[in-house]
Amino acid sequence: MIEIQNLTKIYGDTTVVDQVSMTVETGQIAALVGTSGSGKTTLLRMINRLVEPSSGKVLIDGEDTSRIPAHALRRRIGYAIQGHGLFPHRSVAQNIATVPALLKWSEADIRARVDELLELFQMSPAQFRDRMPYELSGGQQQRVGVARALAARPELLLMDEPFGALDPVIRAKAQQDLRDIQRRLGTTLVIVTHDMEEAVALGDRIAVMDKGELLQYGPPSEVLTQPAAPFVRELIGEGERPFRLLSLTRVGDIAKTGEAGGETIPAGASLRDALAECLWSGRSALPVEGGGVVTLDQLESRAAQASVA
Questions:
Q1: Among 189, 205, 233, 304, which is most exposed with the fewest C-beta within 10 angstroms?
Q2: Of 237, 256, 282, at which residue does a domain stop?
Q3: Mean pLDDT confidence for 14-29
Q4: Pfam families per the record (predicted)?
């Protein structure tokens, strides 16, 4: 669990982060969202002390991080940034092994961990471990960057706009992969994004920041339906709100008995994905993997309900 208590950062006469307090429970994803200059990246970097707070505390499982040597703290916390940040002169395996090597893991343990993570990210070790970063696609580079951040089994993973440089199709897949892997590993994750849609797609909790202040912190459904400030409402976008609410429900949750033709849709896909597929393909119903169907009438009814929520 991460407890942020009255965290503040002041540069000269400018308060960049102002008395922020929030708690991230173990195994949750907290998405920090806000416009450029809102203080979200500074807040993230204060968690692993890349930026030292002016005042306030960060506790990880009850331990005050200011009492832990900075280098030791950072080895316990994974950190992934936009553009992956891979070392260009090191192979994929060497990149992933960076922190375990610093921690003096055995060569056998390092190799096993590298192969485990490559398999987890659906990248064959035999095919990818000896490749150089320039030989990878953008999406593959980003996966290796996240794998490197997870290599030493950190209790906490921090991500700063990790998918910002990816095109929309790859970005959506990367988000889903991250969510699936995070659920499998149970890692606590704090992610910075400027994109409310990404925050809704990934976050168990969303923290909305503006001008250094935390305006609202809560589950996506609460932030979308009960915005606590005009800025939050503006960031959500009234026209987009129904579709973002559809993103919170999975197809499998509303599938009903029936049959439909054409390609199936995963039970884990969102209602927003299903609505887009119906409208794109012109189908009035979609078969759901594992059985049942979801209909256009159901989806349109849910969207109408969301618009008045």
A1: 304
A2: 237
A3: 95
A4: ABC_tran (PF00005)
Strands (E), 204-279: 205-210, 213-218
Distances (CA, A) of 267 to 13, 104, 194, 256, 288: 52, 43, 28, 12, 6
Evaluate if residue 168 carries a pLDDT over 80: no
- What is the residue range of 61's domain? 2-237
Q: Which two tokens stand for residue 192?
A: 């910075």
Number of domains in the chain: 2
Tell me, yes or no, whether 111 and 183 share the same domain.
yes
90-106 in b/e form (b: 16+ CB < 10 A) is ebbbbbbbbbbeeeebe
**Lowest pLDDT segment from 61-70, 117-126, 271-280, 299-308:** 299-308
pTM, two decimal places:
0.80
DSSP result, 89-129: TS-HHHHHTHHHHHTT--HHHHHHHHHHHHHHTT--HHHHT
Can you tell me the distance from the alpha carbon of 111 to that of 120, in angstroms, rounded to the nearest whole number? 14
The last residue of a domain, from among 206, 237, 268: 237
Please give the Cα distance from 23 to 21 (Å, whole number): 7
pLDDT at residue 115 in the model:
94
Q: Are residues 177 and 299 in the same domain?
A: no
CATH number at residue 182: 3.40.50.300
3-state helix, strand, coil in the chain (%, to 5): 45, 25, 35
